[in-house]
Amino acid sequence: MANALSLNTVTLSGDGKSIEILDQTLLPNETKYLSLNKAEDIWEAIYKLRVRGAPAIGVTGAYAYFVLADQIETEDMEEFTAKCAELMEYLNSSRPTAVNLSWALNRMHALLLKEKESRTVAEMKELLKAEAVAIHKEDIEISRGIGSYGFELLQEIGKGAGVMTHCNAGTLATAKYGTALAPIYVALENGWDPKRDLHVYCDETRPLLQGARLSAFEMQTAGVDTYLQCDNMASYTMKSGKIDIIFVGCDRVAANGDFANKIGTSGVAIIAKHYGIPFYVCAPSSTIDMTLASGDEIPIEQRKADEVTEMWYRERMAPEGVGVVNPAFDVTDHDLVTGIITEKGIATAPFKESFEKMGIRPVEKFVDKN
Ligand code: MRU
To answer: Which 3 state secondary structure label does DSSP give 355?
Structure first.
């Protein structure tokens, strides 16, 4: 099986007319790419998690903005701008929690608003294409940067480190490298032996199994000594003394350091505090939403009941009509967080001051106004 790091999560097609995404719902059994150029298909691919992970859906959003804007047939800049605003709203409605989607759409739209007075529609389309490509390239650099800071923490622990992670914040969740798994990839690039020097424990991550299907797949194909555990086994493993550090990704960080990540993350953080295990959040600075004072303001995506009652089972495994709770994310309180690793450095409490020192500021929003 090819190393997952060699797979492209999302790219623009050679002719620039469509988005190519790796269909992550089929992994690890099948490696299939989809070519998408219709708004509804892109929306569905994001909603159904064919492409997922906060930074990856940000890159998808940027390419989608360009590909769909390119299809608008008008020379009239006002009409073009109004149609772009509509498609931005529509794309943003596919998933509410990860701020990277609205961040990327806002960045594309901000460029349009800034340049539209002095450009033709055709010129504007070229600028939008270049901006989407830049967002894609930056994401690779940013993930590599997070990986380098995380690797410094691994070096402090030393070779043989036990790492736990939740959900998938690996290369599949970004343009390359990932966030929470980036320190592992950087360690391997620096000559660490995958079997001897690193031991990675992946929570399976109910209900959509991103840990089992994606993180375990990534680590396994990188040759790392990998263990899969059900979510309710995390406490057992932490108590056993095998875990030196926890790295998780995140979908949105509020100014006070509260953060949303895949459902189950807050429980992992609470257990880690109990056992005194350092708990780090890995986040591109674009995931830090300085417009939100605390995690109470982060919108939490609620998903359909059948993901809990039927998906992955040969037959339905819960009684018909039972009430189901299926939040896709939870919010972890900032006082459970040892540090937030960004491409600009590692933020520590008090987080707001730490973010401000790194130059992270609120960005103007055209969609996702809370
Ligand atoms: O629902 P998903 O699979 O998109 O959730 C993904 C996560 O929660 C990740 O940890 C987060 O997006 C960070 S990815 C670098």
So the answer is: helix
Sequence-ordered alpha helix ranges (H) in 116-190? 121-157, 182-189
**Structure tokens, 278:** 């350092």
CB of 261 closer than 6 A to ligand 1?
Answer: yes
List Cα–Cα distances, 245 to 60, 110, 153, 155, 180, in angstroms. Answer: 31, 39, 9, 12, 11
Are residues 238 and 275 in contact, defined by beta-carbon separation less than 8 angstroms? yes
The string of pLDDT tens digits covering residues 260-314 is 999 999 999 999 999 999 999 999 999 999 999 999 999 999 999 999 999 999 9
pLDDT digits (tens, 9 = 90+) for 64-73: 999 999 999 9
- Out of 95, 204, 251, 340, mutate this one to test ligand 1's pocket (max ligand atoms within 8 Å of CB): namely 251
CA pair distance 54, 303, nearest whole angstrom: 17
> Cα separation of 252 and 260, whole Å?
5
Strands (E), 28-138: 33-36
Q: Which tokens is 151 given?
A: 């690797």
Alpha helices in 158-243 (DSSP H): 182-189, 210, 216-221, 234-239
CA–CA gap between residue 183 and residue 356 (Å, rounded): 24
What confidence tier does 113 reach under pLDDT thresholds 50, 70, 90? very high
DSSP string, 265-315: HHHHHHHHHHHT--EEEE--GGGEETT-SSGGGS---B--THHHHTTTSSS
**Could you confirm whether 251 is annotated as catalytic?**
yes
Whole-number Å distance between alpha carbons of 64 and 87: 9
247, 167 Cβ separation under 8 angstroms: no
Residue with tokens 């967002």, as numbered in its chain: 135
Q: Answer whether 50's CB lies under 8 Å from 23's CB.
A: yes
Q: Is the CB of 52 under 6 A from ligand 1?
A: yes
Strands 161-165 and 198-203: parallel
